[in-house]
Amino acid sequence: MVAQTRAGNSAPKRLAFNEKIVGKGLATDALLKKLKALHTELAELDQELVDVNSLSAVRTQLVNTSILLHKDRGVKAYAACCLADILRLYAPDAPYTHTELRDIFQFFFRQLSTGLRGAEASYYNEYFHLLESLSTVKSVVLVCDLPHAEELMVDIFRDFFGLVRRDLAKKIEIFIADILVALIDECQALPSEVLETIMAQFMANDAQPAYRLAVQVCNATADKLQRHVCQYFTDIIVAHSHESDSESNFEEIRKAHELVKQLSRSCPSLLHSVIPQLEEELRVEEVQVRLIATQALGEMFSEKGGAELVKKYPTTWNVWLMRKNDKTAAVRLKLVESAKGLLVNLHDHRETVDELMRLKLLDPDEKVRAAVCKVYSQLDYETVLHYVSEDQLRSIAGRGMDKKNSVRVEALNSLGKLYSTAYPEIENNDSAAIRHFSWIPNEILHISSSTQEARLAAEQVIADFVFPLPSSSSASTSKNVDVNEVAWTDRLLNTMGYLDDRGVNAVLLLSGLKGSRPSPYELYLQSCVQHNGGVIDEDEDTVKQRLNNVIRHISRQFGDPQKAAEDLHAFARANENRSYKLLKTCLDTQTDLKGFVKASNEFLRRIESSSESILGTMTVFLRRATLRIVNQSSIPTLIKRVQRADSKHAQTLLTYISKHCPALYKPHTSELTKAIADEKNARLVEVGMQALAAVSQSDEALAVNDKRTLERVMRYVLGSNARVAKFAARILVASKEHDDLCAEAVESIARKLSTAEPDLLVAHTAVLAQFARLAPDAFERKSDVLMAFLVKKLLMVPSPADPDEMDSDADWVEDDDVQPRLRARILALKVCRNRCLAHASTDTALEVATPVLKMLSTLLDHAGSYSADATDDPKVKSRMRLQAAISLLHLSVVDKFATAINTNFISLAITVQDPCYNVRMEFLMKLFPLLTARKLPPRYNLIPFLTVHDPEADVKNRAISYVTHASRNISATAKVDWFEIIFIRLLHLLAHHPDFSTAHENLQEMAKYIDFYLDLIASSDNVSLLYHLAMKAKTVRDGQSHTYSENLYAMSELTQELIKARAQARSWSLQSYPGKVKLPSDILRALPNPEAATKILKTVYLPEETSAWLSESSKTQKPVGTSKEKRREPREPKDSKSPPKRKASRHRANGSTKRAKTARWHSDQSESEEEPSSDDSEQDDREDTSTKLSSEHGDGSSGQESDEEEANETKGEQNRKPSRKAGTRAKRKISKQVKKKGNHTRKS
């Protein structure tokens, strides 16, 4: 047992200590003193120079049980140090038996585990010495040679990992690590309990000392532990995968994989054999195992060291990527959820990850698609800018139109968050940020105006990220809200700078500026106050009915109408006056931005604290009801920005405010007055004049009456700028001295009109259009002179085409290219129209209107000229017939005029089939606002159904959108009057259509009109009425001629067959209609006698070929699973969609396709020109509500019908390129006219 060799040339040094430390009667203090002396001397001895024979006495006494089991801690501490020194001096041999060594090492670790507790603990230096000796001398490896060494090793590892948790010195951690590493390196077989003890440390907090110790040990012994670690995981998976139905077993497997992830972060070299094992798990049939393995590997690849892992295990990486096609959606979901780290850390594999994400955006499972979108919302600005392509972001934007709401929400939130983080860089004109992110608001706005389903999520994102309220976070807790109104307004303008025309229109609609006042939301608040929580003193039924009506209307705009209605009722029942006051402040157009932010935050806080369940609904309500994008605080900044060269969007906003919400100008009239004085800035003058005109007309108290200002306005009235002159005329009309001022202006214009230069002629005519409507007394003083000039010298003068013009076939001229002479002619038509409207309530109304109506009808009959053989320029004719049709629409608002126009209604209606695309679209866009406000007779609702054959998809789609929204948002009773009873008028119109004939091919085309109507209107509830009306058409005669009667009978038979086939395909019950229907007497007459009725009923007016075709069609038509009540709303067509190809056999009068379209709305349009609604149902609903509820809450209309239409009609909602001409007017515009066949009547 004694060392065999000793080195060194000097004589060995002997131990001087020769006292006994074992014996009876030895006091503890004395023993402690002796052991201390012994320890001191042993510590100083050099292993190479000591005479180990001199150590024999003490080495034997030190292992005596009286020492090892002594009750004094000091005795045992010094004894342990002495024993450690003995082992050091005797190394590499141990002077003890195996049993003694086992006792010694157990004694060592017992002392350390119980005594080593920190630098201030008793005998800390002795314990430190003991630990240092074991670490440096490596005497601890002797444990590996002892019998039952496994048990002792287990205790050592357990004790040391427990010891290190005491937050000891860093050096002690190093000593312990050295000891454990030495044990692992020397042991023949590593006990499983030891490995479990080590692995357990990785499941703890990675900031713990035990975790750090385990990391050190594992990294130092990785080569030896690899095999054991692999076996460890294999044992766990095998042991817990037999009972695969047990969740507890999967939990154990899950924990094992969590451990693998921890090891991957800190000790990746241990996993050399484990990673291939995980790869195999990806291929197993058991879903839970695949799921766990996919998640684990995904998180490992996503770590900072993931690139190295991919490089080291490329096969595993590829097999993991293949889980993108896993048959189980949950596995694909786990794959996708790992993608954030992949995008951040695996830059070399960007293309692979992008392709994976692009593919999963189209995954059949909505959770996977939503998860892909969510990943991008978690990325920081720099990562997205440099490592995510714009194409990928646009693919995410495409998911904003997903059929599943969860996907739409995640996609739009991702885009919104990314834009919000990038906006500061965009504002600083960072070209990379602009290129990568500036398009995002445009896409979100397009989505917001596309479908009802997508709108709610898009609006939320726009409110939260695109146009957020300023300082909303601090405002919620601070009484003194400090908001930056200029920065808020500039953000709107900066964002609009990157929008297309459709995006700008969407912003304007979302702004809440458009719509009559009081709005439906204001009516709701009024109803809540009157309802008084259910305690109503007077007219209880009326008050409750009003509240129910407005709630029913508002709730239709929510994703879940039933939930919204319940929440709105709950808010009304709560009857909190403070909430009412706050909501009123938010709804008030005069509330500034600071007041709005404060009131809205307090309102939502109160809702959250009192009724959290309705918070979501009231948040949407508040967002839609208030001016949170533009309000009166925006006006000063917008006026300043108009003065800049890049002021397009500031001008757009101010023009829109002037048209739809001039009340915002009330606090700023002095600024507007200053603006019109800056004559050097023509743009600012124009905007200021329009704003002043609007605010003067909206509130008499704000009318301009300052003498100096009125003198300036008079100069503008008589000036050559048509738009400025028009607005100036309105300001004069609103002033107190309007009679004298207007008369003076009319006198001056009358003198100069005949000699005026073209531009001045346009301006004077624009002013006359205003005076004719708003100041009729002044106009009539010179009406003879003025009307004679306008009609004879302007309107009736031919306008031949320019022989030198290159594009002689063009049938449309852009607004900017309209010649002054044509502009003046268009305005002259408006003068005539406005003069009629001004006299509408007088006894001379028809006397004034009759020649005008005749002139307008003539223009329609002769394609824009006053005679059939006129050789006018086609571009002039298209503009003239469009203005004639629009004028007839506005005149039809007046009942007596509508009756007179009725004889020419068919000519007016088929304007929607004009050869020129621009005429068709402009006509529709003028028609829809009048129909939505129910200003026109119900028969005008037939016109949208005539678009079925239009070669341009957007014309037809706009018609579909209007009909869908309008029919959905009115009561059942109103729908009967406005859309169902008029069905027989549709049959009559088609019977009179210039394209009608009883040829089979033609009747097939006519059937498409009927099917189009039935697609949009027919349901199981009204099919009996529609069939009844179709049958009734054969019980009357046409009011005009026998030929048209036969046409009507053919349409009746055709329609009956189509309705029967539809009812059969949809399993609708086609019962006899129980009610009585009064047929329109203005177009139909009763039959002369019963014999005639019997003859007509027995006669078949359809050709045999058509009857056979209908019979065959009904047999081949398959039943459908859903009724039309559940029909989805049509989507907005894309701007660049190409026109559909025509069939050779198609015969219709819908004119040509368009060439190209430009802006749908321009800031320099006339005020009356309605912006396209972007198929925005909410806007339609707002206007519709004002009509339905105005009788209960006061008149919500603007108070003007025709003078909302501005003089500058040439500026349309859409500036479009000239379209291709497809023929002449109405009766001659079919590409291939079907030859009339003979009499197809067959006797039964």
TrEMBL record:
Please cite one Gene Ontology biological process associated with this protein: cell division
Principal location listed in the UniProt entry: nucleus
Leader sequence segment = none
Keyword Coiled coil: yes or no?
yes
- Subcellular location(s) per record: Nucleus
Segments of this protein annotated with the region Disordered: 1109-1244
Q: Name one GO cellular component term.
A: chromatin
> Coiled-coil stretches, from where to where?
28-55
Q: Where is the composition biased (Polar residues)?
A: 1109-1120
Q: Is Ubl conjugation one of the keywords?
A: no
UniProt keyword list? Cell cycle, Cell division, Coiled coil, Mitosis, Nucleus
Q: Which InterPro entries match?
A: ARM-like (IPR011989), ARM-type_fold (IPR016024), Pds5 (IPR039776)
User: Spans of biased composition, class Acidic residues?
Assistant: 1166-1183
Q: Where is the composition biased (Basic and acidic residues)?
A: 1123-1138, 1184-1195
- Fetch the Gene3D superfamilies from UniProt: Leucine-rich Repeat Variant (1.25.10.10)
Tell me the Pfam families matching this sequence: PDS5 (PF20168)
Q: Matching SUPFAM superfamilies, A to Z?
A: ARM repeat
Q: Which intervals carry biased composition (Basic residues)? A: 1139-1160, 1217-1244
Protein name (database record) = Armadillo-type protein
Question: What organism is this sequence from?
Answer: Suillus plorans
Q: What high-level taxonomic lineage is stated for the organism? A: Eukaryota, Fungi, Dikarya, Basidiomycota, Agaricomycotina
